[in-house]
């Protein structure tokens, strides 16, 4: 059983920063890739960032140079540092991990970028 709980979302002005956290309640956290997705109103859910068990990182083109994903295996947490936020970053952000071809999701944390 995998439980994921996101936190850290909120309202921020354009150009501002937020740091999202995802706490995992599961064994073997360090063995699996972790991902951040987001879903904007009326749009499909999209992959934002991935960090593998070995630390390999990948980003969507739309967030490269602005967002940073990291993980703390001892705390069983994954983070998304978001800088230079834009209105188009407004979305609900979800933490994800996949095991045995099954996707586990958190409840999401909303991020609104607006002046």
Query: What percent of the residues sit in helical stretches (DSSP H or I)?
Result: under 10%
Rounded to the nearest angstrom, the distance between the terminal CA atoms is 40 Å
Largest sheet: 7 strands, mixed
Order of helices and strands: EEEEEEEEEEE
Helix and strand content put the structural class at: mainly beta
Task: Describe this structure as you would to a colleague.
The chain is mainly beta and 115 residues long. It has no helices and 11 strands. The strands form 2 sheets. Strands 2, 4, 5, 6, 9, 10 and 11 form a 7-stranded mixed sheet that branches. A hairpin with a 4-residue loop joins strand 7 (67-72) and strand 8. The protein is globular. The mean pLDDT is 97.
Provide a brief overview of the structure:
By secondary structure, the protein is mostly beta strands. It contains no helices and eleven strands.
Give descriptors for this structure.
115 residues, globular, four-stranded antiparallel sheet, mainly beta, single chain
Outline the fold blueprint:
Layout: E1 3-7, E2 10-12, E3 18-25, E4 34-39, E5 46-51, E6 57-59, E7 67-72, E8 77-82, E9 91-99, E10 102-105, E11 109-113
């Amino acid at each position: 059983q995998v439980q994921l709980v996101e936190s850290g979302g909120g309202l921020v002005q354009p150009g501002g920063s937020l740091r999202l956290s995802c706490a995992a309640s599961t064994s073997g956290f360090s063995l699996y890739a972790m991902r951040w997705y987001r879903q904007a109103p009326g749009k499909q859910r999209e992959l934002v960032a991935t960090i593998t068990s070995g630390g390999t990182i990948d980003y969507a083109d739309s967030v490269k140079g602005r967002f940073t994903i990291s993980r703390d295996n001892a705390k069983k947490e994954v983070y998304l540092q978001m800088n230079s936020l834009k209105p188009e970053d407004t979305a609900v952000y979800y933490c994800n991990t996949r095991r045995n071809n099954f996707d586990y999701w958190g409840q999401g944390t909303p991020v609104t970028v607006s002046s």
